[in-house]
Amino acid sequence: MEMTFDQTEKSILIKEWKIIEPEIIEAISDYSENDKLIEDYLTRCLRLGAIALKGVNVSEKVDFVQKRFNSLKTDFGNVLTSYKEEISENLEKQYKEFFDVLEGENGVKNCMATHFGEKGTLIDIIDKFFGEKGQFLELFSLELPNSPFNLIKNEFIQKVNDLSLRMENYFAGKEAEQKIKEKTTLKGFDYEDQLEMILNEISEQFNDIVEPVQTVGTQTRGKKGDFIIEIPNNSDSKKFRLAIEAKSGKMSITGKTGILNILDNSLKERNADYAIAAFRDINLLPQTYQKSNGMLREYGNNKIICVANEGEWFPLKIAYKLARSRMLMLKEKGNDVDSESIKTKIDSVINSLNTFTSIQRNLSELVKNIESIKNNIKACKISITLDLKDIQAELFVS
Questions:
Q1: Residue 149: how many other CB atoms lie within 10 Å
Q2: Is the pTM of the predicted complex or chain greater than 0.85?
């Protein structure tokens, strides 16, 4: 027999194959005259045979596995039976050891009671640090004088008080400034802008020149609102210079940041002969200086601090003319000018101005009181009228 197997075509060619099986010969005899039918029949026989043989192989494997499983089951049962007593003894031994660890004299239960019980070590430690007089509470107490938290608390309170005082001073200054703005028709303007308008008005009658200083590199940190006024000197080419500082915020009088030091720096660094500081409100000066400074006060022979605003520019006008007189006196020094007489008159002007200011302030208070009295009288009239109406109504009902 010669057989050729073609993997590509999935076919088998068998030559000179002789079949001598009686069962097959007998079955084929019905198709002996038709080769095609014989070929189909033989193909079906081979297919059915192949399938049958394949099933036989699977069945044989299943039987083998079943037999091996039964054998393993028998072996496991034998091993389990042989070790049953040994396992029982080991479990009983392990349980006894575990019970000793849990319930024994040095067991977990006794150790827990020793360290965590009512009289345990841990309770003593907690009480020592966290009890009523414990170290922890002493450390974090807000009442004990030397505790860190108490020191921090006191420092914090001090800083809050300082900040509160500074804020109170700041807003008091802002409030005073706002009140001044609301009293005038120029409340939409900055104080520096208003001051420039007034200075131009004053200087015009003397042909003086007002120069706003926008940026000045000085120790005074020159800013918008500072002015230099040039005053002509008819007998000399040198012009007198008057420095004006406009202040609408609270400031001290003395000290490094005080207004007097700022004026001294203005005199030196702006090459000025006289300096004036114009404050918008008397409350912007330190309370201890408000009475002694008044609306105008001269310091030395070259500085004036005055209070002038939209409600009353008169003190600024006086300060301007006094400063101008002082500078012109320097020019006339040595001539036939009675300097002492002029000085006396200047002092008299300052005193009269403060008297005038005091009278004006008292008058303002008087006007307020009169308005208050008028309002009280009006309220009394209304109350009397209403009471009479009520009386008449009750009498009419009766």
A1: 13
A2: no
